Amino acid sequence: MGIPARSRTTADARAGTPRRRGARVTAQGLAAALLATAGLVAVTGPAAHADAAAQPAPAARTRTPSLVTGLDEAATASGSAADAALGHLAAKKSRYHIDDPKRDLAAVSSERSGKDETVRLQQKYRGVPVLGGQYVVRMREASGKRTVTGTSGSFYTQLDLPSTTPDVSSAVAVSRAVGAVSTQLGQGPLTRPAGTAPSTGTLGGTDEGLTVLPQGKGVLTRHITVSGTDPRTGQPVKQEVYVEGHSGYPVLQYSGIQSFAPAGTATAAPTAASGTAAPEAPAAGQQLVVKGSGVRYNGETTELNLYQGADGAYQMIDYGPRDAGVSSTLLATYDARGREASTASGAWPSGIKTFSSSTTDLGPEYTDSGAVDAHWGAAQVYDYYRRHFGRDGLDGKGGFVYSLVGVVADGRPYNNAFWDGSKMVYGQGGGDYRTFSADTDVVGHEMTHGVIQNTANLVYAGQSGAMNEALADYFGNAIDDEANHIPMSDPDASLLGENLCVNASPRDCALRNLDDGATTSKDFVGVTYRGDDGGVHLNSTIFSGALWDIRQDLDPDFADRIVYRALTAYMTPLDGFTKGRAAVVAAAQELGATKAQLITVKQAFAAHGIVPNWETALGIDASTLISKVNISGTGVGAGGGKYAVSLSNDDGSEPYSVWAGSTSGTGRPTLVSGNNGDYNVYADTDGRTVAWAEFAPASILIKVRPLAGGPEKTVYSSYTDISSVAVDGDYVVFTESDPFGNPHVGYRDIRTGAGTWVDGGRYQLSTTLPSISGGLVAYAKLWPESDGYKLGVETTDLATGKTTLMPVDKNATLAVGQTAVTADSVYWLADTDLSDGGRVSLDRADHDGSAPAVLVPETRGTALYGYSLTASDDAVTVLSVPPATTWANDTLPKLYQIAPDSTGGLQRVSCDRGDQVFPAADTGQRVLWLDGTTGWTDLVVRDRPAGQC
Fold first, then answer.
1. What is the pTM of this model?
2. Geometric angle at alpha carbon 288, from 284 and 291, rounded to 5°
């Protein structure tokens, strides 16, 4: 069996009204990622004290309390710390409502700091791990006796799956996951390859096993890790994709790369078998530490711990025991100069070795490469955590610490750094930037991701991801300030990445400022999972700013201990801002904060708008057709005064079904697709017919149904991947990927089922980004000629089969974006200069290719950073995504509208500050889109542009 169909009640179906959506699909914890929200776990209630701890307030959708403090209860079970923790939960079943802790929980880690012990337990449902289901038990040990002091976390008691056996095979799940990542990467323009063959990149998937998503009664998924290279940018790709176990629809996707700047279980050490030189084992009696020196980027000469190998060379390996009795964690710094970042993400570039020198005095090469700063910085980070918290390495167990320095992306400078789950990777830098190990706060940031992974393991999506970034920033900056003797009073003490630039001043260079004053009400970025994994960087300074205020207002060392304790003993993977606040307050109480200090801590969060129900204060300037639609990865279609959109239920656990309604907002939406346990997505309508794709266990079906009533009909079945479904009149068009990953536009006659591909499905061709009106299909096309591949825009008249190339310069055009067809025009986006940050032109021509015009030139100062477009006979609307040189609401996707004759110029469709994605033109100037401003994903509409914002 698998996950059965989840049917709406008969009353719901009769009323034709979708239930209210109660969970976010954007940056509220994992909420959006899970297609619901981090509202999967409730806002923490009041801390329970010892005399009231028996019945603390539970979290929503679970009877298990999310936070219990003030306990002083003897642990009844002997043995290990994990045994004692499980025994406590079993003995207090009436409080925790965990039926069988030994069956339903597995020990993840046990950490000890002085007398304090922290045990993390992973929830399992019938042996399958639950994403974000982690419960923490805190204890104190003295004279051989343990006392439980508190608990926190998320244990989902509502789970009730009939089976944990998926219908979807591992091979199908991998194929769907790779397809989903390819689709996400390819949603932008079709790009002409530089060589004589199109670049398809290299993406592969690994099945990590089954995972239950804690939505509703639970969603069984296969967890697939997709990794490789983005064929368009050369950037490394590592995506965690969760494929629903019955239908095979990828319901969740987020980045497995935790980078310093928005992008764009420790693995084994490298071995000779992998073609990479591992640090050699020292011979008996061999000197482990040789003192060397090098010059940092800032000109300071510093001492470095090196190791002299058997060949006499001094390697950048630090075996240094810092204090008697403290284990000597190995820190190794590898020379990865010129290696592609993608080969270092979740893997090791073949043949790399540690930096080495013939002398102990390292010359300018080691400074310029960033090796000195990376090696010195890693030691500073290790020493900080050991000295302040007694932590031995990133995993707390003395695990090796690896740094790879100098990677590039597609042969060009890689101005970023990331933690890939097992090691630090630093970009080579170039142009205005130094190598990214040049600033100690970057080193501290990336290594702290390793600490977070081995403690709270905050999921890198939405609010939990923003907290992950915030904590990495906080400790990265604290380490930087301490290592470089920067006082908190220094106005630059709060800057991150301020020393990365070659010429710019620290304030002009800094990528983030923990003193930027960001608040939820003023600065929260309503970004959907279109980018930045739901705002992990964009919203991080709201939380890190509160933490930094605490560090400024209290003793810095005490503040660091509070935040570290909150991270390691209270927080769990899906916590959002409000739960993070509760964790910090509880940690401060535990560490003996005075009443005045507790007020300071709470005021810091309040000053940044982190208070209960802060999300409800955010508003929009458009009319909301449906709020909280609880969907991800699928858009909205419109035409003829009607819309079609996928919806889920109030907790996001129900497979998507397609609903249709009036774009004017009158009347009630009606259910169009079957509510059959499959995922029904990519809905579109022309006002008469609705078309969509249905993800089923073994195939993807394209279906249609008349809005006036009648049975649904299957017009096509695919075994690879489907996207870009559109319907008009008697035809449905779509994009399908061939076995090599190349896209092809196909079409089917709704009445007869006849149809084919506009390019014949030939592997050497690519067609994508289709649109249709009046039986005319337009699409972007890539084809080979003797001197290389060419790009253009082509139309096909489905009635006659006639094809027409639009007036696009096939030699100068390097990228073609979305197309749109209206009653008399064809529109498209074109890019002739890939070095201008993504500017494009908006072009048009008549159906036969005559009367070409450029409505918005690529070279104009107000040029669009076009990503997609949609058009009616009266207006063209472009989704513009400006380059993210600064991360704020202004850099999120925004909609611009222009008349077909360009009179009146460009106007903003909406002044909403958040994401505006998946636009769909109706009649006149009316546009619908999915809006993320409120921190939810809402279906909204405007009848005319807002003008200038």
1. 0.69
2. 150
